[in-house]
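Dear colleague,

Following up on yesterday's call, I've attached the two folding results inline so they're easy to grep. Please treat them as preliminary; we haven't cross-checked anything against experimental data yet. The first protein's sequence and structure tokens come first.
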Amino acid sequence: MIFKFIEKHKFIFKYAAVYVLAILVLGGFLGGMALGARQGKIEAEKEFYGGQVQNRNQIPEYLSKDIDFNLFWQVWDLAKNDYVHQPVQDTKLFYGALAGIISSLDDPYSVFFDPQTAEDFKKELEGTFSGIGAELGIKNKQLTIIAPLPDTPAEKAGLKAGDRILAIDGKDTTDMALDYAVSIIRGEKGTDVTLTIWREGWEKSEDFKITRDQIEVASVKWEMKGDIAYIEINHFNEDTTRRFNQAVTELIAKNPKGLILDLRNNPGGFLDTAVEVAGEWVSNDVIVVEQMDDGQKNEERSSGLARLENLKTVVLVNQGSASASEIVGGALQDYGKATLVGEKTFGKGSVQNLEPLPDGSAVKITVAEWLTPKGRQIDKEGIAPDVEIKLTEEDYNANRDPQMDKAIEIINSPAK
């Protein structure tokens, strides 16, 4: 089951799908609370709770006052009894309120999962789900395609990393929650969804009608390109370590002159998987630093075999490379183990813990930020490549890959 292994993993994560069960009627519980069930009705154990709200910025006076929890029940009763479309389910209101607690943090990566969404999340981690096959995120307050996954409806339709989604089936995405956007883009195999897309350089937006399909993604692919080894990692998920180890074993047996690690459009995954992958270049050293809100720092160290530490390596990155991809790329760059080629990465350097709850629901919540071994900030900053090369619309349409061409050129160039 998902929660068995998630408890020992930290997420830097792919932007998880969440179905918001109800529009929040409560701005968030900023103090402690205790709920009990009596006579089939959820009731507050206490009416008032100490309001110790802390914020680095100036906050409205009302947010620093003690909480009159009767307000919650007044709103509950209004929704339960006065809403025009009856009946209203208690569980829908309850899960909506729980989702609201987390959404009030204004962090797109902190999410409450109801039990069904938690199960869907499990399927995504296993690499199988139904949808269009694109990872979404919020960038500059806009719903954005982080990465279209290989051989999926999203990629086949022509979506690209960095595309802005202006509308979903005609519904404006301005201020739309990330979890809700994911939930309405996903759907049954064979059904259609229309995304209104704006791309940098376009004068106007375009509609993309995409037919949903079952998405099964192999996290690692590999081959020899002449005498150069090539490994593509699409996700850092459950099977990545096993498949990456298999790839390295097979490829080094062919005595390559160099290796290209392709992390383009890789939106992230498990932290420990990223550390294990980086451990094939960096032996027993710091891969990433976890920085807590109070300034405390924890180091994540590699314990890999470092079988690739002396192999000339180029890492391909772009704006769809996020999270775990940035950890691997940043570490190899810091230690001088690889040359990064491509475009600046996404800049998603926060870590989420997933906390399972007794009813099968769960909370994914941001608990820290990541720094590279040399202390560089990843979150909102991204990792700049050593050699910047853009993949243009013309390149894409002509099936050219100047980033790959540059990587091969670097591998073939004489050692300095």
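Below is the second protein, in the same order (sequence, then structure):
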Amino acid sequence: MNTSRLKKHINDFLRKYKNHPKKFVDDLQERKELISYYQSFSNEKILNMDKDDIYEYISKLWAMLIWGNKHYVIDKVIDENGIDNFRKHLADLVWGHNEIEERWDIFRTEIKGMGPAMISEILCKTHPNEYMLWNRRAFVGLNYLEVDNLPRYDYQLTGKIYKYLCDTTKSIADELKKVDFEDVTLLSVDYFIWDELQVEENLSKISTKHAGKKNEKEKEIEHPEQMKFIHDDIRDKIKDIGLWLGFDANIEQKVSDGSKVDTIWEATIGNMGRVIYVFEVQTKGSIDSLILNLLKSLNNPAVQGVIAVSDKIQLERIKKHAADVKDLRDKLKYWDYEEISRVHESLEYVNSIINNLSLVPQGF
């Protein structure tokens, strides 16, 4: 970490607060209220939440600002995971006794539809001295401070990496403590990152492929322990992209006999009926099984497009296999998962800006 750069911005941060004391008081009060709210959800209370409680709990997250219709998104989270299963894993994540690395990995593996931004925000607002808030802006800020090994994509953010990010953020809190800043929680550090470290040059680079220092672990995506993260993360991102584009998007759907696919986009077009686009994400397994599954999906006349999703090397292998399959080769499309991550990031940013305009009231 570039500590001289950090100290310069801490001094600028303190100067701003001294010149605008009301902002300091307002921000401090806001943080206290957020922490009080999320800490009020004890283990027992989480286990007994009903749908309305879950909606209120999740909808208050800053990570939900990217969604206009929050009810629709949260209902999908509940439906896809089951309310009992969701409550159990949420309680274990927030109040479990195992190390955060394990709790993080289990929650990300078992619960669909919630990414690192939402998960880390819940943890940070419940345990602000222990856990940091990770999102696009945190990446920009820490990258500006020249922190090594930042996860560029969500699938790279394992429990081990999250623990490393928390420890890194605590070192920023320690620097704030040295100058006698009143609030040195990791939630306060998040405010500092937003106020001081969103440098324009860094923001403009966020969508470029090589933003930030290269994490050597990016080359190890074939490692078995990362496979499930990659698969589920990309599957959920494809669903999000479909929702933002106006489709009814779902994961793990049966589209024909013998064919259950990772993600579908579905639309009803006037009197023409349904149109379905099928996506299969492959991080491991047999290419022949992938091709057979996509072939079976075409037995549903509503399926108008089938898309294989993987990394560049695997996509070339899939193309070679599909070239010999007459009924599939001209219909199969290919999508690199790194491109999906960049598309998702761009649409997420656009939607957060549009939703901040509050053009459509909640519940409309």
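For the second protein, one point worth flagging: Residues 224-344 form a domain with the Trna Endonuclease; Chain: A, domain 1 fold (CATH 3.40.1350).

Best wishes,
A.L.
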